[in-house]
């Protein structure tokens, strides 16, 4: 049988001008080792994209990758190839990427890399930092300190913060003012990160979306099928997070001064991507540095509490300890 060669044509769809006649903001991706890079690019670059997504186009990516984390090493190649097939230019350095973009999606799955990557990215262009913001609290604080010093707008968030079930409960008139909540979500750890940062951060983001900042004390106990973290806010409100070790559902209960309500499930990435694109256009972060820092203090206090056999642990203690680490790092340079 005679074989004929195939000619494969790659059609690159270029976004039209925005409604105001401006060119879309050019977005660059740092870190191609997470499925988020594919999902976000498809949502942003869709020719039919409307609203804030219509004003952004993902055009370039730097692969990155962490050889000592299998879920990074095994995925960075295939995801990079897929992005190349979607029309993105692939570059070999962050400096090369910055020459070709206006805004940045810091997507590296390994939170350890974020501080070093942000040190290269902190040039004034808006940066979204995907979860986890970093591998530990000290790095998170250092990132936001650098952002302030360089006038680089940035924020970090999980998609769970903007999940339909969470936003509905946080603003439900039948619930009223939220006086407490309970969240259950999947729990996996990675040895280079504080326990909750790798995957538990999704559930913690949901808690903060409903409760807002103000947690002062945290305790944690661990079991065969779950780890349970309780936070006590300064005004007496209480939130709990159940990290599920054996299955992957999401469940949310809000308690309020008018009633209580329950919902479950994950509604997709669209709401988060809309927030990111709005941030790129306005340079105004929808989640403050202070809130993200407190979230990581909550998670680091959970680890400390477990090491102390469930003892209540102060978030302020964790922040003070992290700032001391940063001071010691600076002294060692």
Description:
There is one protein chain. The protein is of the alpha/beta class and 333 residues long. It has 2 domains: 25-158, Rossmann fold, CATH 3.40.50; 159-333, Dihydrodipicolinate Reductase, domain 2, CATH 3.30.360.10. The chain has 12 helices and 13 strands. The chain has helices at 36-45, 70-73, 76-85, 94-98, 114-121, 137-150, 164-170, 195-198, 201-211, 270-282, 289-307, 315-332, and strands spanning 25-30, 56-62, 89-90, 103-106, 127-130, 154-157, 178-186, 215-222, 226-233, 238-244, 251-256, 260-264, 313-314. A 7-stranded mixed beta sheet has the order 12-11-7-10-9-8-13. Strands 3-2-1-4-5-6 form a 6-stranded parallel beta sheet, sandwiched between helices. The protein is globular and about 50 Å long. Mean pLDDT is 94; it is low at 1-13.
Derived from helix and strand composition plus strand pairing, the structural class reads: alpha/beta
Instruction: Name the shape in a single word.
Output: globular
Would you list the SSEs in sequence order as H and E? EHEHHEHEHEHEHEHHEEEEEHHEH
Low-confidence segments: 1-13
Order of strands in the sheet with the most strands? 12-11-7-10-9-8-13
Distance between the termini: 68 Å
- Number of E-type strands: 13
Average pLDDT value?
Answer: 94
Q: In CATH, what is the class of the largest domain? A: Alpha Beta
Treating each run of at least 4 consecutive H or I residues as one helix, how many helices?
12
Strand percentage, roughly?
15-25%
CATH domain topology of the largest domain: Dihydrodipicolinate Reductase, domain 2
How many separate domains make up the residues? 2
